[in-house]
UniProtKB/TrEMBL annotation:
Pfam family name, one: APH
Keyword Transmembrane belongs to the record: no
PANTHER family: AMINOGLYCOSIDE PHOSPHOTRANSFERASE DOMAIN-CONTAINING PROTEIN, HYDROLASE, PUTATIVE (AFU_ORTHOLOGUE AFUA_1G12880)-RELATED
Transmembrane segments: none
MF GO annotations: kinase activity
Full protein name: Kinase-like domain-containing protein
Lineage, opening ranks: Eukaryota, Fungi, Dikarya, Ascomycota, Pezizomycotina
Disordered: annotated span: 395-415
């Protein structure tokens, strides 16, 4: 929900730019700022006629990452996907002139729908919830699920559509390199994490510090005493595909738009799939048995571990992880092997560690755009602990895969 502006902009300068370049937006403009969005400050613009639009801009000041916050990439991919069956908001303009509002920005359509920051989708029927998840991961074949699984169904389907898209056909053939995705990501994470660790809090003078067990985790993914990662596979990937980056219709269990494309590229589709499956992965790592999940004496859980996604305590309408995998595989036309899926899940959690560390670094510099940045930053230790458990699980699955002859290619995921 949009509220008071926390990071002020020059509204008069914005109005002059809009009047000259965006005829769909009628000045004067009323400006509010959304509370969500950890990376790029996001504003709601209401024009003279009462029409609403959204503006996304780079954060102010010197940025730690040269690759994050690229609003120009968001604009390019949203513009390219217009007219495809991948739902995106309409993009109106891209401005790279810092003189207007202090940093580059773009303006897009405001989608009047529902965004679920809570992955369990409170207030939704069991039938709709399942369908909404199915459409995220790509399920297509057979009769649709019933109950709340409806929303999950739509999430699955949408991810499948994205990964099946012909990048060249929409002008995105040069949007990224088709090979070596995970190797590049690992090098990027290592470099970015070093810079973030050195960030110093402007009030306390204390550095953010490294991710716990970072050296061991980076060593695993680099191939030290571990099986190799997944075989290369190329698709247009969103880069942060999850429920709270989707806009659902106000009353129907279907997705009307995918948001937050700044990390999109040509890469391995496993990365998006594992990010979508993270709620199931995290809680199963935190509570590996049904008894642990049901125990009133269970240890405190990290914020990202939700009992609604544990098979022993699942909320009605939240589909099991195997169903999400089946739905996705039916739409995307491929299924990762168990070893690759475990490796990808662990890598996804390493990425989460780097993201949380980045939030901590931006909070230290007071550049964070979210109202809850300090709370997120405090989760670095718990998230790193879960990531290490995922690394241990991936190592175990990798050894199994070697014994079963699955280690170097794709196989049928254990569902």
């Amino acid at each position: 929900m949009a509220g008071p502006v926390r990071q002020p902009i020059d509204v008069a300068a914005l109005e002059r730019y809009v009047e000259a370049n965006v005829p769909d937006v009628k000045v004067p403009i009323a400006v509010k700022q959304f509370g969500f969005g950890q990376s790029n400050p996001t504003y709601q613009l209401t024009d003279r006629a009462g029409a609403k639009f959204v503006m996304r801009k780079k954060p102010p000041g010197k940025l730690l990452s040269k690759t994050a916050h690229k609003v120009e990439r968001e604009y390019r991919v949203i513009h390219a996907l217009a007219g495809t069956d991948v739902p995106v908001p309409r993009a109106y303009c891209l401005c790279m002139d810092d003189a207007v509002v202090g940093s580059p920005f773009y303006i897009m359509e405001f989608l009047d729908g529902r965004i679920f920051e809570d992955m369990t989708m409170p207030g939704v029927s069991a039938a709709d919830r399942e369908e909404m998840y199915l459409m995220v991961s790509g399920g297509l074949a057979g009769p649709g699920p019933g109950g709340e699984e409806t929303r999950f169904h739509d999430a699955a389907r949408t991810l499948g559509k994205l990964h099946a898209l012909d990048q060249a056909a929409v002008g995105l053939a040069d949007y990224g390199k088709p090979a070596g995705f995970y190797a590049r990501q690992l090098a990027l994470f290592a470099s970015l994490s070093r810079a973030q660790a050195a960030a110093v809090d402007v009030d306390t003078g204390r550095p953010v510090g490294p991710i716990p067990r970072q050296a061991e985790m980076l060593g695993f993914f680099a191939g030290e005493a571990a099986p190799p990662g997944p075989r290369d596979r190329a698709a247009l990937v969103h880069g942060d595909f999850k429920i709270d980056n989707l806009v659902y219709h106000k009353t129907e269990p279907r997705i009307i738009g995918i948001l937050d494309w700044e990390m999109s590229t040509i890469g391995h589709p496993l990365s998006d799939l594992c990010n979508l499956l993270a709620p199931w992965t995290v809680v199963s790592l935190a509570l590996p048995t049904a008894a642990a999940a049901r125990s009133p004496a269970r240890p405190p859980l990290p914020r990202s571990a939700n009992l609604a996604f544990h098979p022993a305590t699942a909320r009605a309408g939240v589909p099991p992880r195997p169903a999400m995998l089946r739905w996705y595989a039916a739409a995307a036309g491929w299924a990762p092997s168990p070893a690759d899926l475990a490796w990808g899940a662990a890598f996804s959690l390493l990425r989460d560690c780097v993201i949380v560390q980045g939030i901590a670094a931006r909070y230290a510099a007071r550049q964070a755009s979210s109202e809850r940045a300090r709370e997120y930053a405090a989760q670095l230790g718990p998230v790193a602990g879960i990531c290490w458990r995922a690394v241990e699980r991936a190592r175990e699955e990798g050894r199994k895969g070697e014994g079963e002859g699955e280690g170097e290619g794709e196989g049928k995921a254990r569902l």
